[in-house]
Amino acid sequence: MAAQLSLTVLGHHFVYDLRGRLIKQILGTDIETLERIGSAGLLANVSIDIRNGSCSRVYA
Prior knowledge:
By secondary structure, this protein is mostly helical. 80% of the residues lie in helices and 0% in strands.
């Protein structure tokens, strides 16, 4: 039971950290790049990063 709780907490921390890094990258990207990528492309890139558990630099 304690191991399951620990894994759950670890997973939540991982997702929180990943979301924070993604947000920082998106906010650090110039507006022209974001407009060129578009909302659909941005959402697709974020979805791929989350699925892969990574935080690639595809926005800048």
